TrEMBL record:
Gene that this polypeptide is encoded by: coaBC
UniProt-annotated stretches for the region Phosphopantothenate--cysteine ligase: 195-420
Cofactor or coenzyme needed: Mg(2+); FMN
Lineage: Bacteria, Bacillati, Actinomycetota, Actinomycetes, Mycobacteriales
Pathways per UniProt: Cofactor biosynthesis; coenzyme A biosynthesis; CoA from (R)-pantothenate: step 3/5; Cofactor biosynthesis; coenzyme A biosynthesis; CoA from (R)-pantothenate: step 2/5
Function comment: Catalyzes two steps in the biosynthesis of coenzyme A. In the first step cysteine is conjugated to 4'-phosphopantothenate to form 4-phosphopantothenoylcysteine, in the latter compound is decarboxylated to form 4'-phosphopantotheine.
This protein's record includes keyword Magnesium: yes
Residues of the Flavoprotein domain: 8-174
Highest rank taxon of the organism: Bacteria
Protein name: Coenzyme A biosynthesis bifunctional protein CoaBC
Pfam entry (one): DFP
Limits of the DNA/pantothenate metabolism flavoprotein C-terminal domain: 190-413
Signal peptide region: none
Length: 420
């Protein structure tokens, strides 16, 4: 069941960059979610997207200066009344003006009066993003409590590529909703932390056509990787079957197929990591024999198909715990497992989850009760967070991004307890 969302008032600032065209989709997604959106572009932004587009999408008037509707004092009221301000794209110029407290147009004046969460979504060339002036301005804004997202890497204006690309509109809208649900969900508290996150289901081949798989979409693992990256971590995401999911901004993605490939990828990347989050749905079994050609169906309906003998796959999570105990993961401070469980006549979900935590030996175990329209292939989740010290915390129902933020909170607490 989707959580009921309360409509909020959102200001979307749009600066003058080629990525301004993506802001139109951000506005559409936020309005379709039921929120009241007011768009405040800069004058240069209107060279890329006209005011009529934003007015049609938001249903509200669009102005750039403080002189229109002066009796309503818009340069004060818009910021005072907003539940969230999103600046997308946030160019180097807007970041600089915001960091120095300029108020020379309606957008920057609104930023000065806003007392709600403010999220800047940078978009600029790599050289501008990495310039010491921009680095200092971003640090200043974060120190003051603003959220400045990590940009994506990819195609920029012209033939250039690199970090500085604006994240996709769906990711921006997702993080905006997270800040509406939890205004303190994205502190920049994981700087210097290296994390490996696994996500999605593995596929164990039977023959060149068929495989054994599972229903995992990878959405929860992607959400954890996205939140960790936006909280400052350097994240490597090892992704199995995650059809239709866009790579999270600021995250290095490694593609795998089978459980054996996932094990190899974790073994390669975990030694440098401080955190390992095993959110992937790794197959417990694989075919003992992989046929080199497609298994043919007999024309005779009475001929039974050949049996498929299964053998166990390696337990990647338990292997990582052992490797840490043996000193092979010298930097590792937190290992997080995931358990998709069902109850039966011998015990409920938590009974099996507690036994799994003891068996695996990880620091934290995220437990989901699975079933029809639960956990797999949906956008929401709930469950429990079990800790090795015996603590158990219920994770309330909500978006997978909201759940990811609470999981990351627990990881941060674990790192702090270990002096990291």
């Amino acid at each position: 069941m989707e959580p009921k969302r309360i409509p909020k008032r959102i200001v979307v600032g749009v600066a003058g960059g080629i990525a301004a065209y993506k802001a139109a989709t951000v506005v559409r997604q936020l309005t379709e979610a039921g929120h009241s959106v007011r768009v405040i572009p800069t004058e240069s932004a209107l060279r890329f997207v006209g005011a009529a587009t934003f007015e049609a999408l938001s249903g509200n008037p669009v102005h750039t200066d403080v002189w229109t509707d002066v009796h309503e004092v818009p340069h004060v009221r818009l910021g005072q009344q907003a539940d969230l301000v999103v600046v997308a794209p946030a160019t180097a110029d807007v970041l600089a003006r915001a960091a120095t407290g300029r108020a020379d147009d309606l957008l920057t004046a609104t930023l000065l009066t806003a007392r709600c969460p403010v999220m800047f979504v940078p978009a600029m060339h790599t050289e501008m993003w990495l310039h010491p002036a921009t680095v200092d301005n971003v640090a200043t804004l974060r120190r003051r409590g603003a959220v400045v997202l990590e940009p994506a890497s990819g195609r920029l204006t012209g033939a250039d590529t690199g970090p500085g690309r604006m994240p996709e509109p769906e990711e921006i809208a997702t993080l905006a909703q997270l800040l509406l649900d939890r205004p303190d969900a994205l502190p920049h508290d994981l700087a210097g932390v290296k994390a490996v996150v696994t996500a999605g289901g593995t596929r164990e081949p039977i023959d060149p056509v068929r495989f054994i798989g599972n229903r995992s979409s990878g959405k929860q693992g992607y959400a954890v990787a996205r939140v960790m990256a936006q909280r400052g971590a350097e994240v490597t995401l090892i992704a199995g079957n995650t059809v239709g999911l866009d790579d999270p901004a600021g995250v290095h993605v490694v593609r795998i197929g089978s459980a054996a490939q996932l094990k190899d990828a974790v073994s390669k990347h975990a030694p440098e990591a401080h955190v390992l989050v095993m959110a992937a749905a790794v197959a417990d079994f694989r075919p003992a024999q992989v046929h080199t050609s497609k298994i043919k169906k007999s024309a005779d309906p009475d001929v039974a198909p050949p049996p498929i003998e299964l053998t166990r796959t390696d337990d990647v999570l338990a292997g990582a715990v052992r490797a840490r105990a043996d000193g092979q993961l010298p930097n590792m401070r937190a290992i997080v497992g995931f358990a998709a469980e069902t109850g039966d006549a011998n015990g409920d979900v938590l009974t099996y989850a507690r036994a799994k935590l003891r068996r695996k030996g990880c620091d934290l175990l995220v437990v989901n009760a699975v079933g029809e329209k639960r956990a797999f292939e949906v956008d929401t989740n709930d469950g429990w967070l079990l800790a090795a010290d015996g603590a158990e915390t219920a994770l309330e129902h909500g978006s997978k991004t909201l759940m990811a933020s609470r999981i990351v909170d627990a990881i941060v607490a674990l790192l702090q307890n270990h002096g990291g």
